[in-house]
Write a structure and sequence with these properties.
InterPro entries: KIF15/KIN-12, Kinesin_motor_CS, Kinesin_motor_dom, Kinesin_motor_dom_sf, P-loop_NTPase. One of its GO terms (molecular function) is microtubule binding. Keywords: ATP-binding, Coiled coil, Microtubule, Motor protein, Nucleotide-binding. Belongs to the TRAFAC class myosin-kinesin ATPase superfamily. Kinesin family. KIN-12 subfamily. The chain is built from 11 helices and 19 strands. It has 394 residues and is an alpha+beta fold. It has a single domain, classed as Kinesin (3-Layer(aba) Sandwich). The strands form 5 sheets. Strands 3, 7, 8, 9, 10, 13, 16, 17, 18 and 19 form a 10-stranded mixed sheet that branches. The protein has a 3-stranded antiparallel sheet with strand order 4-5-6, covered by helices on one side. Strands 1-2 form a two-stranded antiparallel ribbon. Helix 5 runs antiparallel to helix 6. It is globular. It binds adenosine-5'-triphosphate. Adenosine-5'-triphosphate binds next to helix 4 and strand 15. The site of adenosine-5'-triphosphate has 18 residues, from helix 4 and strand 15.
Length: 394
């Protein structure tokens, strides 16, 4: 899937080019990607260029402190990988999955300052990818999604294909759900029912008909996020954010009306941090302990999912945090999920980087069961014909 780019400079980390292989991403329900960010100037001023990781191939990375540990993932994106390359490899197949009716989720995990917001949002203020190489996964996803919708509508004009996309944007701050598209709505409640499944009551949903409108919602909501300056990151996200798009399509074929729908969740988690390094006190300390608590629940959920799949347990503690309760379909349920675990390569962050690599390794064992979400209705004769048609295709 990946090839060695052959870097001759022995002091610099080896480079590995990403290669697109959409079938791989479509066929697997949970993918785990490691993204290594470049060393920051403050890390260089403390530890020079000393690194705690060495990339061995496009899929494996070694934590080089004592004792060395080697990890294998679906993909390891090194510090030279651009936003565009990462999007082509991991984002494009996700859009295709949504178009096919699969719920999809991508979330960025990692210690504070490791590059989660850079990966999920990047620079969203200066337009989308044609003129802005730093814009991240979410704006690129929307640009591609609406191009695909346009193309599909043109190809399938005979079937009267129509799409609707509705966006919402929330954050979980100190275990409360806030609506980023309506900052006056605080402490929203999670509800579960047969019709809508897990959802947030009274959360604003805006219908968007093109990438520009989706980006507008993203910019508006991102501006309302709780961000603060900490010792570890000048603009640290103090909440988990979830941007959701419900994509519905309707069409008619041979007298049958089809309705397909999928949820796309794009999640930027708040970063874990050691209270000593972050220098947190007062409100920052309360935020940090809530962040660490919900991230450790995420860890427990993953451990329990592995135990359940090995028939060693039956209970998964989704309800122990708002984050895991909200994302339960994405973790062990009906979704195709991509986890991007962000790490710093600096030896100053060796302990946090090891902890992220271990988390990502456990996450690789999650088993999801993604199905195409589709209903069909029509008269009996048409339904019989459709069943016949499906049998012939099987
Ligand atoms: N791949 C990358 N290439 C270049 N710069 C990067 C990369 N990843 C992160 N950065 C830079 O590193 C800094 C910290 O990144 P970012 O804010 O995305 O971290 P974070 O994981 O979201 O942190 P927090 O959890 O504290 O919100 C930012 O200045 C960002 O632009």
């Amino acid at each position: 899937m990946l090839s060695d780019g052959g870097d001759d400079d022995s002091s610099a980390p080896a480079r590995f080019e990403l290669q697109e292989d959409p079938s791989f991403w479509k066929d697997n329900n949970v993918q785990v990607v490691i993204r290594v960010r470049p060393l920051s100037s403050s890390e260089i001023s403390v530890q020079g260029e000393k690194r705690c990781v060495r990339q061995d191939s496009g899929q494996s990375i070694t934590w080089t402190c004592h004792p060395e540990s080697r990890f294998t993932f679906d993909l390891v994106a090194d510090e030279h990988i651009t936003q565009e390359s990462l999007f082509k490899v991991a984002g494009v197949p996700m859009v295709e999955n949504c178009m096919a009716g699969y719920n999809s989720c991508m979330f960025a995990y990692g210690q504070t300052g490791s590059g989660k917001t850079h990966t999920m949002l990047g620079d969203i203020e200066n337009g989308t990818r044609r003129n802005n190489e730093n814009c991240g996964m979410t704006p690129r996803v929307f640009e591609h999604l609406f191009l695909r919708i346009q193309k599909e509508k043109e190809i399938r004009r005979d079937e009267k294909l129509s799409f609707t996309c509705k966006c919402s944007f929330l954050e979980i701050y100190n275990e409360q759900i806030l609506d980023l598209l309506n900052p006056n709505a605080t402490n929203l409640q999670l509800r579960e029912d047969a019709k809508r499944g897990m959802h947030v009551e009274n959360l604003t949903e805006h219908e968007v008909s093109n990438a520009r409108e989706a980006l507008q919602q993203l910019i508006e909501g991102a501006a309302n996020r709780k961000v603060a300056s900490t010792n570890m990151n000048r603009a640290s996200s103090r909440s988990h954010s979830v941007f959701t798009c419900l994509i519905e399509s309707k069409w008619e074929s041979q007298g049958i009306k089809h309705h397909r729908f999928s949820h796309l969740n794009l999640v930027d988690l708040a970063g874990s941090e050691r209270q000593k390094s972050s220098g947190a006190e007062g409100e920052r300390l309360k935020e940090a302990s809530n962040i660490n608590k919900s991230l450790s629940t995420l860890g427990h959920v993953i451990t329990s999912l592995i135990a359940v799949s090995n028939k060693k347990s039956q209970h998964v503690p989704y309800r122990d945090s708002k984050l895991t309760f909200l994302l339960q379909d994405s973790l062990g349920g009906n979704s195709k999920t991509t986890i991007i675990a962000n790490i710093s390569p600096s030896s100053c962050c060796a302990a946090e980087t090891l902890s992220t690599l271990k988390f990502a390794q456990r996450a690789k064992h999650i088993r999801n069961n993604a199905i195409i979400n589709e209903d069909a209705s029509g008269d009996v004769l048409s339904m019989r014909l459709e069943i016949q048609h499906l049998k012939e295709r099987a």
